[in-house]
């Protein structure tokens, strides 16, 4: 059975630099990588890297840049459901600069929170569904599809999006970043079963209606933090049903830590192996 991941697919142009440029400044990069990116996409690559079956539900279309994303997803072992196969506009593009000495990054991108792409008909046997809130109709449709089938739904809540008002009652696990505009108690009151808060190198905290706790994050030398949160979400979705909650969080922490040890969007993938 597969993990279905519904959300954003971008083209990431990633350049490593000695220092992040100041306004009006030009700098020479050390290297350039081009890869498919976006929260759901990076999570899907993670599921596949861990030896799982990953199906990405997104919108790509026919633009030449979309072919780059398709090729990268195929190379990573991710199956694709394109909700906009005839679209001619370019997919979202992210310009990323990663600082060599500590892996810190800046990202300029345009997301798909205002997308009107509708949920297509599809037939997969899913054991978990992850949504990132981009392409709102895809997120809602996938969550409703999962709820009807008793499949757990994981929300990548990196930042608040208007669709969350309708989406949260359908969510079993909300994995939030430190910048998310919402309290754990507020999310639990909206019907979310489990709330998890990640905060970079700080311990990951979690809450349910009956319990709470925190799990430490491995201490590593960070080489590249781009997509680390997405990798965490992918590992969490992959591990559902395999681990109890604290151990599941610990597993996701370890996978994300492995990602930040390596430079580049895909260099960490062969290191993780099947688990």
Low-confidence stretches: none
| Broad shape | globular
Number of spatially distinct domains: 1
CATH topology-level name: UDP-N-acetylmuramoyl-L-alanine:D-glutamate ligase
CATH architecture type: 3-Layer(aba) Sandwich
Tell me the distance between the termini: 16 Å
Quaternary state reads single chain
* Lateral arrangement of strands in the main beta sheet: 5-4-1-8-9-10-11-12-13
Radius of gyration: 18 Å
Q: Describe the largest sheet.
A: 9 strands, mixed
The CATH class turns out to be Alpha Beta
| Helix-residue proportion | 25-40%
Task: Please give a structural write-up.
With 275 residues, the protein is of the alpha/beta class. It has one domain (2-20, 31-265): UDP-N-acetylmuramoyl-L-alanine:D-glutamate ligase (3-Layer(aba) Sandwich), CATH 3.40.1190.20. It is 29% helix and 28% strand. Strands 5-4-1-8-9-10-11-12-13 form a 9-stranded mixed beta sheet, with helices on both faces. It has a 4-stranded mixed beta sheet with strand order 3-2-6-7. Helix 6 (228-239) runs antiparallel to helix 7 (245-260). The radius of gyration is 18 Å and the shape is globular. It starts with a strand and ends with a helix. The mean pLDDT is 92.
Quick synopsis:
By secondary structure, the protein is of the alpha/beta class.
Topology readout:
Layout: E1 2-6, E2 10-17, E3 29-37, H1 39-49, E4 53-58, H2 64-75, E5 78-82, E6 92-99, E7 105-109, E8 126-131, H3 136-149, E9 153-157, H4 164-167, E10 173-176, H5 184-189, E11 194-199, E12 202-208, E13 212-215, H6 228-239, H7 245-260, H8 269-272
Parallel strand pairs: 1-4, 1-8, 2-6, 4-5, 8-9, 9-10, 10-11
Antiparallel strand pairs: 2-3, 6-7, 11-12, 12-13
Helix pairs in contact: 1-6, 6-7
């Amino acid at each position: 059975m597969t993990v279905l991941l519904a959300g954003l697919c971008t083209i990431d142009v990633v350049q490593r630099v000695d220092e992040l440029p100041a306004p009006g400044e030009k700098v020479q990069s050390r290297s350039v990588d081009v890869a498919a990116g976006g929260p759901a996409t990076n999570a899907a690559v993670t599921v596949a890297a861990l030896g799982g079956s990953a199906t990405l539900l997104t919108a790509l279309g026919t633009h030449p840049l979309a072919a780059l994303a398709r090729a990268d997803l195929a190379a990573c072992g991710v199956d694709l459901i394109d909700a906009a196969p005839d679209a001619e506009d370019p997919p979202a593009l992210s310009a990323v600069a990663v600082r060599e000495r500590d892996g810190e990054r800046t990202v300029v991108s345009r997301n798909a929170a205002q997308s009107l792409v509708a949920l297509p008909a599809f037939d997969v046997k899913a054991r978990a569904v992850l949504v990132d809130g981009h392409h709102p109709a895809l997120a809602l449709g996938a969550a409703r599809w999962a709820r009807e089938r008793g499949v757990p739904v994981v929300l990548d809540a990196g930042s608040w999006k208007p669709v969350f008002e309708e989406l949260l009652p359908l969510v079993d696990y909300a994995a939030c970043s430190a910048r998310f505009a919402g309290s754990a108690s507020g999310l639990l009151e909206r019907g979310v079963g489990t709330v998890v808060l990640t905060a970079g190198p700080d311990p990951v905290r979690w809450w349910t209606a009956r319990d709470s706790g925190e799990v430490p994050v491995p201490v590593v030398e960070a080489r590249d933090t781009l997509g680390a949160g997405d990798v965490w979400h992918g590992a969490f979705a992959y591990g559902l049903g395999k681990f109890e909650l604290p151990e599941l969080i610990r597993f996701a922490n370890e996978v994300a830590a492995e990602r930040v040890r390596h430079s580049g969007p895909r260099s960490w993938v062969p290191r993780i192996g099947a688990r």
